[in-house]
């Protein structure tokens, strides 16, 4: 039977005699060696108490696992949720240490002090709202030291779902659309019509814009029409056929139809300018489905991405995020969120992962 070691609760840590280093740190990498003692985090101490390897005392009273969990939850926010994740990762064979997010985790076979950590783990309860700005800060913090950010979301039954999160670039291989003269088009109400067959074929069959209404005419969505108008490929008039609408006038009109139109257009523009084919993602509950490249002679088969445009002050609901990622994964697509930052559109990819 292993000898049970004693430690003393001190603020937000537990201190053990320096002689425990060989037993706890040198072989299993629990704690942080100090000059004359070994310091455990509250989570490490709780786990070692559960494993009957440590007894923690406070004011000369031994704390059992229940006592220590209750005391720790009063001293450290989100403690029980972090403990659930810590225990899960430890029992999967990972070495895990405190980090600038919540934990840093070493690759299988890696050891603290000998191998760089691979993941930064950010622990969340399913009930916690997650501001986009906070999540991006965590992603950039991890990326700045070449780590992968993993969100560990604990549901109300204490099951854990792990999500990988990373900023990414979006790039495709399609040639930009071009035409000798602007194509005549008409804004009806919430879509734009191209009337002649030659122009319809050029836009749809060669550049993959819109959807045919019939053998002659082409329907364009508002974002497609706005993009083509910006590129001077189409000229849009209203249903009266009077003076062409300026891009500002068309954008203002479109915004009355769809309140999120400006950010949706900004994301669409960035993706199209990057050589990607962008079509509606409505059937998947998102703004766009996106292809890196499409052979126009074959038609559109399988898109690689679902992209959803967000306001920069967006706050994620984790159940909603879970639904979006699960749906994307179920149809073999990557879930990407996009928003405006300064003059740029930033893309964040989220996907379920196995640890």
Strand order of the largest sheet: 7-8-9-11-12-23-22-20-19-18
Q: Based on CA inertia axes, which overall geometry fits? A: elongated
Number of helices: 10
Unreliable parts: none
Q: In terms of structural class, how would the helical and strand content be classed?
A: alpha+beta
Tally of separate domains: 3
Helix content: 25-40%
Computed over alpha carbons, the radius of gyration is 28 Å
Strand segment tally: 23
In the CATH hierarchy, what is the class of the largest domain? Answer: Alpha Beta
Q: Mean of residue pLDDT? A: 94
* Second rung of CATH, namely the architecture of the largest domain: 3-Layer(aba) Sandwich
Describe the main β-sheet briefly. Answer: 10 strands, mixed
Distance between the termini: 31 Å
CATH topology of the largest domain: Trna Endonuclease, Chain: A, domain 1
Strand content of the residues, in percent? 25-35%
């Amino acid at each position: 039977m292993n000898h049970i070691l004693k430690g003393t609760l001190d603020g937000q840590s537990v201190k053990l005699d320096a002689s425990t280093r060989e037993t706890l740190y040198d072989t299993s990498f629990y704690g942080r060696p100090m000059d004359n003692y070994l310091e455990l985090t509250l989570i490490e101490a709780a786990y070692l108490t559960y494993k009957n390897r440590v007894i923690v005392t406070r004011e000369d009273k031994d704390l059992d696992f229940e006592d220590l969990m209750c005391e720790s939850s009063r001293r450290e926010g989100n403690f029980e949720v972090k403990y659930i994740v810590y225990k899960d990762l430890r029992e999967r064979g990972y070495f895990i240490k405190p980090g600038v997010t919540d934990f840093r985790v070493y690759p299988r076979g890696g050891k603290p002090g000998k191998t760089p950590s691979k993941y930064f783990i950010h622990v969340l309860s399913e009930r916690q709202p997650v501001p986009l700005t906070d999540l991006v800060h965590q992603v950039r913090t991890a990326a700045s030291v070449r780590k992968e950010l993993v969100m560990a979301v604990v549901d109300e039954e204490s099951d854990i779902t792990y999500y990988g999160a990373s900023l990414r670039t979006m790039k495709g291989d399609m040639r930009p659309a071009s035409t000798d003269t602007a194509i005549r088009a008409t804004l009806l109400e919430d879509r734009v019509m191209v009337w002649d067959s030659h122009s319809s074929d050029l836009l749809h069959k060669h550049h993959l814009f819109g959807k045919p209404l019939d053998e002659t005419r082409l329907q364009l969505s508002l974002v497609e029409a706005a993009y083509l108008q910006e590129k001077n490929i189409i000229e849009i008039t209203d249903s009266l056929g009077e003076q062409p609408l300026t891009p500002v006038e068309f954008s203002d009109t479109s915004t009355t139809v769809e309140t999120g139109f400006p950010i949706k257009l900004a994301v669409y523009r960035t993706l199209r300018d990057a050589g990607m084919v962008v079509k509606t993602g409505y059937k998947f509950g998102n703004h766009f489905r996106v292809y890196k490249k499409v052979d126009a002679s074959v038609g559109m088969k399988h898109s690689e991405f679902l992209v959803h445009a967000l306001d920069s002050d967006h706050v994620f609901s984790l159940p909603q995020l879970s639904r979006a990622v699960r749906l994307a994964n179920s149809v073999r697509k990557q879930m990407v969120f996009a928003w405006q930052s300064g003059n740029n559109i930033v893309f964040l990819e989220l996907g379920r992962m196995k640890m």
